[in-house]
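QUALITY CONTROL LOG
STEP: pairwise intake check
CHECKER ROLE: data steward
CRITERIA: each record must contain a sequence immediately followed by its structure tokens, with no blank fields

ENTRY 1 OF 2
RESULT FIELD BELOW
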Amino acid sequence: MQRLVRLPIEEVAIDIDAEKNEFVLLLHWIGGRHTEVRLVRRKTRRFPPGRELAAGEVLRKLGGHWPDRELAVTLNRIRCRTEDGETWTTVRVAALRDSLAILPCDPDAEVPKTMSVDATAKRLGVCVASVHKLIRSGVLPATQIMYSAPWKIPVDALESEAVRIGLQEIAARRPRQAYEKVTDKSMTLPGF
């Protein structure tokens, strides 16, 4: 199918109409004709409009709770930029944190041990979306210091009966074909 579509198309040009928040695709056909297709862009800004925060405010709230890498991810997620208009990196976060005299995260501090959503998903053997579903349903206790910040999930909560039942419900919702593909990892050869 892809080859059939590629034959009559000479070129595809993509532009962004920021005013209408649309992608504009211009298809150049082999015969010399042009077709314009407009697609609506998804709104990617996750922080509520009108509540944008400066990087310094975010670091004052989250600094010391999360490593610089997680802080950079959070700042980029809420579309916060540096003074130069650049995205945040671990080095840039560390420099701003040092200039604001905010202590770095101490992973060995005497606080209840918590995990990120990614680490929880890996430990439970499910995808990140399933962990978020468990958090939204209240099965998995988690806290978030501010909107769009990483979740903190207590390690002790992973062993609870409610989480075990929630994981069983997630496994029951999986399509049967996907379960069979996971369980049957042996390769079958024709004629054997």
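ENTRY 2 OF 2
RESULT FIELD BELOW
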Amino acid sequence: MLEVKDLHVNVDGNEILKGVNLLAKKGEVTVLMGRNGSGKSTLANTLMGHPKFDITQGEMIFDNELLNELGPDKRAKLGLFLSFQYPQEISGVSVGNFLRVAYNSLKNTKLTPLNFRKIIEEKMRMLKIEKSFADRYLNEGFSGGEKKRNEILQLAVLEPKFAILDETDSGLDVSNLKIVAEGMNKIKEKLGIGVLIITHYKRILDYIKPDKIYVMSNGKIVEQGGVELVEKLEKEGYDWLEELEVES
């Protein structure tokens, strides 16, 4: 469903991704792990079409569509979704209005605020989010947990085919981590979407079962496998990847 082939990406003239190959399938949870600076977030932003990231070689294919030259809006309409590591605050724009505009754009509809309210409240009930949440300004004054829950609410409302979660677990306490993970599991079960989770740590994978693990180091995928990789990283850290970098 989402395939990355020999992807090379430059940022400000420096090569960050150095030939990434990755395959993530519909209905599965694919996990990308790696230490800070390994290129994980660069891959996420490149997949979503951030103009800062310059593709010099390789392909990104989603649902048989080549993504390389498509803008972020067209990628979103194809069904790609990115949950940000650091969600931005937008004063004066409510969560409800923001999502209604996005929903109408993606679905090519013209729902009124009243009609859309029924949709967003259904999703908030599913995710155990209070109704008043929709009237608050987007991420303004939100706690770290509320920002991440808002990202999952956006995912539930927009119903993409494939979701990229860029360190959604970052900064979450155990309680909020469990809430976010349970919400993600409900959405995945209901929609049958593919998910790419980008993370440093094992803890979110205690709540969301992964199907495949990729490990990135120095801009390359250096190892792949099952949950045994997560256990090894948890016990040994990332230093053992240096040998694999040389081999790759």
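INTAKE CHECK: passed for both entries
DESCRIPTIVE NOTE, ENTRY 2: The two ends are 25 Å apart (CA to CA).
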